[in-house]
Task: structure prediction
Amino acid sequence: MSLLDKILATRTSLSPAEQRVAQLVLGDPRGFSTMPVTALAEKAEVSKPTVVRFCRSLGYEGLSDFKLKLAGSINQGVPFIHTAVSEDDSTSEIVVKIIDNGVSALLQYRNDASSANFQQAIDALYKTTSTGGRVEFYGVGNSGIVAQDAQHKFFRLGGNTVSFSDGHFQIMAATMLGKNDCVVVISNSGRSRDLLDATEIAKKSGATTIVITASGSPLANIGHILLAADHPEEYDRYSPMISRLLHLLIIDILTTGVALRIGPKLRPMLANIKKNLKKKRYRTTE
Result:
């Protein structure tokens, strides 16, 4: 879903004044991205705060963040495409299609990603990590593998982390969470009964729930913080590719954001980890 498609889809849920701003964007997106807030407010016949509220209603930090994503959407170098691989494709065609699909999906996500939601998620994860709370990652199937990757990245930040891909373990773990804990639930479809049950239990236990899934899915509607990963790939595909790339990218953003919040005190520990890992490698011989 492009940024303009997102505005079209959510326009009716906005206030009448914000709808006028939405109409201004849809009518001239390129012009909107270059005009100052005063000119935008005058053209839409609204106040300057209304223009900012419109941007925040769509999940952006403010007008500057919205303009940046809008300009990227307009000037995107690689058009969004999704070309299905067929049985008749040659090896070279398979290579090109899969790479093109991945690249275009990542560029599209760059323009659609909500910086405000990412900020909320990073704040929650940093707070949990810095206060000694538990950060747990849940996923099943392919998403379970992403959950393991997330735990592998986050435990190096010095936090108390674990990942679960078994539904029974997820239920038990979610039951034992508390208000100082955080759980990240990863799902392509957002319809897995195990993950939905675990998320509900984690919420009742007082934990902050961050969900990485498709917009409008049952899981998206029950998490505290939604990091939407929308793409044209069918969620029941035998071997999801684009969704896994997006989920891994989101985990990298979260890890980097929390690491930057922790700051310089993290460096000595990471340096020691790197030093100790060298002992596990064969030395090259001349």
